[in-house]
Amino acid sequence: MSLTSILSAEAIEKAVKDCEAPDSFCHKKFFQMCGLSSKTPQEVKDVFQILDEDNSGYIEESELKFFLQRFVPGARTLSDAETKKFISSADDNSDGRIGVDEFQTMVLS
Ligand SMILES: [Ca+2]
Ligand SMILES: [Ca+2]
């Protein structure tokens, strides 16, 4: 399973380009632009599993830092501020990482 089997490569490229400038990343806009917001809960779960690189069942801060590079290899890394904001906007149970339910809620709400 790869991201481009779920999302269009063109939409991914646009979404990544849009947050090229440092500290311009907005997860809501990104998920809309890459088309993930309009996918099914199962497809969102599939994307979660791709982003959970070490298969821990959670997306941790260390994985989020390289979030954009999972979509486009040459993309920038997220800053600490962006990573923290990203986690806190999804982390409903405050354990410092994003579970699959939290990810689905963040993407689809
Ligand atoms: Ca993980
Ligand atoms: Ca959490």
**H and E order:** HHHHEHHHEH
CATH superfamily: EF-hand
The multimeric state of the shown protein is: single chain
Give the fraction of residues assigned to helices.
55-70%
Radius of gyration: 13 Å
Task: State the major sheet.
Answer: 2 strands, antiparallel
Mean pLDDT: 97
When the domains are counted, the total is 1
Which structural class should the secondary elements be placed in?
Answer: mainly alpha
Strand order of the largest sheet: 1-2
- CATH topology title: Recoverin, domain 1
GO cellular component, one term: cytoplasm
Function: In muscle, parvalbumin is thought to be involved in relaxation after contraction. It binds two calcium ions.
Keywords: Calcium, Metal-binding, Muscle protein, Repeat
InterPro entries: EF-hand-dom_pair, EF_Hand_1_Ca_BS, EF_hand_dom, Parvalbumin
Describe the overall structure:
With 109 residues, this protein is mostly helical. The protein has a single domain, classed as Orthogonal Bundle (Recoverin, domain 1). Helices cover 56% and strands 4% of the residues. The protein has 8 helices and 2 strands; from the N terminus they run ααααβαααβα. It has a two-stranded antiparallel ribbon. The mean pLDDT is 97. It binds calcium ion (2 copies). One calcium ion (CA) binds at residues 91, 93, 95, 97-99, 102. Residues 52, 54, 56, 58-60, 63 line the site of one calcium ion (CA). Ca(2+) 1 binds at residues 52, 54, 56, 58, 63. Ca(2+) 2 binds at residues 91, 95, 102. Residues 39-74 form the EF-hand domain. GO terms for molecular function: calcium ion binding.
